TrEMBL record:
Sites where the protein binds Mg(2+): D73, D92
Record carries keyword Cell membrane: no
Lineage: Bacteria, Bacillati, Bacillota, Bacilli, Bacillales
GO BP term, pick one: thiamine biosynthetic process
UniProt organism field: Gracilibacillus kekensis
Gene3D superfamilies assigned to the protein according to its UniProt record, in alphabetical order: Aldolase class I
Pathway: Cofactor biosynthesis; thiamine diphosphate biosynthesis; thiamine phosphate from 4-amino-2-methyl-5-diphosphomethylpyrimidine and 4-methyl-5-(2-phosphoethyl)-thiazole: step 1/1
Principal EC category: transferase
UniProt xrefs under InterPro entries: Aldolase_TIM (IPR013785), ThiamineP_synth_sf (IPR036206), ThiamineP_synth_TenI (IPR022998), TMP_synthase (IPR034291)
Single GO term (MF): thiamine-phosphate diphosphorylase activity
One Pfam family hit: TMP-TENI
Gene: thiE
Protein name stated in the entry: Thiamine-phosphate synthase
Requisite cofactors: Mg(2+)
Positions of 2-[(2R,5Z)-2-carboxy-4-methylthiazol-5(2H)-ylidene]ethyl phosphate binding: T137, N138, T139, G169, I189, S190
Length: 213
């Protein structure tokens, strides 16, 4: 995969915003997000056909702006609607199982909170590793203890050049420090989905991440 896709990696579900999710996504795409993940999870999340229809529309928007479209957890849905890949966590389908059933060019991201998980994800052939939570977050109900920039640095040391994206409680002011700590980009929900102007906010995130490219 192109490591630049991780620079500003936006994640959104319908319950992460008070605005229309498709509006928020298109604003974020106009602002220049480099990757997108549909994560429909938690209180009030859509299910069944409503979830599928939203995913199809989001994929259409991502195609329009030529941005990779990934789905969180739901490998069946990702296969059904021909997404560009999936993100799976430690409690989800394993990367080996995903590889067995997915197209060869799929992007597969795996979560890691510590060095052991990151080393295993690298061994298993993850295209990128989502490292977090870096800071505390209100967005994920079952988030683990934050690992901070030190935790990120330690993981970077272990995995060499494997693409990494930092996640969890990330705000604009954190981007520079996180890039210095060794991440290839930042993965963000609320700082973009709840921004008054998501497009402008993404531009600022991109500006910060780009300082390191
Ligand atoms: C880029 C990225 N990194 C980490 C995660 C978290 O995945 P997971 O641990 O499976 O938790 P849920 O998102 O499924 O609640 C992610 N989604 N994306
Ligand atoms: C989806 C997710 N995964 C995390 C992890 O640590 O693996 S933290 C998180 C939530 C990120 O949302 P926000 O940018 O609003 O904090
Ligand atoms: Mg998961």
């Amino acid at each position: 995969m192109n490591v630049k896709w991780l620079q500003v990696y936006f994640i959104l579900g319908s319950n992460n915003t008070d605005q229309a999710p498709l509006y928020v996504l298109e604003e974020a795409l106009k602002g220049g997000i480099t990757c997108f993940q549909f994560r429909e999870k938690g209180k009030g999340a859509l299910t069944g056909n409503a979830k599928k229809q939203l995913a199809i529309q989001m994929k259409g928007l991502c195609r329009k702006y030529q941005v990779p479209f990934l789905i969180n957890d739901d490998v069946d849905l990702a296969l059904e609607i021909a997404a560009d890949g999936v993100h799976v966590g430690q409690d989800d389908m394993s990367i080996g199982e995903v590889r067995e059933i997915c197209p060869p060019n799929w992007i597969i991201g795996v979560s890691a909170t510590n060095k052991d998980e990151a080393i295993q994800a690298k061994k298993d052939g993850a295209d990128y590793i989502g490292v977090g939570p870096i800071y505390s977050t209100n967005t994920k109900e079952d988030a683990k203890q934050p690992i901070g920039e030190k935790g990120l640095q330690a993981i970077r040391k272990e995995v060499g050049a494997t693409p990494l994206v930092a996640i969890g409680g990330i705000q604009l002011a954190d981007v520079n420090r996180l890039m210095q700590a060794g991440t290839d980009g930042v993965s963000v929900i609320s700082a973009i989905s709840q921004a008054v102007d998501p497009q402008k906010t993404v531009r600022k995130f991109l500006e910060q991440a780009n300082l390191h490219s």
